[in-house]
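SAMPLE LOG
Freezer: B-3
Tube label: C17
Construct: single chain, 314 aa
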Amino acid sequence: MPLGPSSKQLFYFMAVLRTGSVRAAAEECNVEPSVISRQVANLEAELGVPLLQRRGRGVVPTDAARLVLDYCRERGAGDDALRMRLAELEGLKRGHLRIMVGDGLVDAFMDTVLLAFCRHHPGIEVAVEVGGASDAVRAVAEDHCHFGLAFSPPASAAVRVVRQRPQPVRAVMAPGHAAAALPAPLSLPALASHACALAAPGTGLRALVQTATDAEGIELRPCFVANTVAPLKRFALAGLGVTFLSAHAVAPELAALQLVAVPIANPILETSRACLIVREGRALPPAGSRLIQLFDDAGFFQNPAAGGKGNDRL
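STRUCTURE (predicted):
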């Protein structure tokens, strides 16, 4: 008799693997832990193999669980392929598209690309989630999203970059701050003597700044940390110190002469990029191909100032 695990069983099983525990999966899925445990137990009974082993307060997958995980991804890809063929028959009149976008790229993405897409294809259901660079890579690699639009995402064999544009990191501060009077480009050692605000650990921007400082053998000790751009800008606007963002992130404040964004003499920060990523080997639905076309039509990746507003995601 062929194996036929239900979609619900596989959904909850994937949630446990993704979160690392039954309780965390229950919170993510908004159900009781007993529901998760029962569905996973039913799946194990149907397959005849244990899938999870307890370790501390969490669980780890068995070798059999990894095979089931591969099956889930293949099944999801098959479902997407079917939807893609059906959408082709409908001529982009129906379907769905899931995208994870960096917090600070949302405004530019919405204004230059997504609103036009929604206007021309109202039958396509578009789901946008906001997340950091690592979140975007994980969501795309696990087929949770078709696209990730992120600032300097970490390298992964599971995803590929289909479009990118320069997004250099600058030293951002109030015009009257002492560092603003230093000759440009600024050096990281010179900035280390000033109070600074940094992106939170685990964000793409913090990882980028950490790599840059490690390469120069210096340490930045922040007096303020945040996981979104807005608080970092407020810190700089108050004249409390220096933060690290792209000029795109502070375009309105630069135009109003409220902040300055000074180049930094560091190749890692100077060559950072905004990237559009997809899962390696995944065939995009027609809606995905159309979205890329709109990115190109808008010049989003040819013009670093596309949209003229918005903040870079950390």
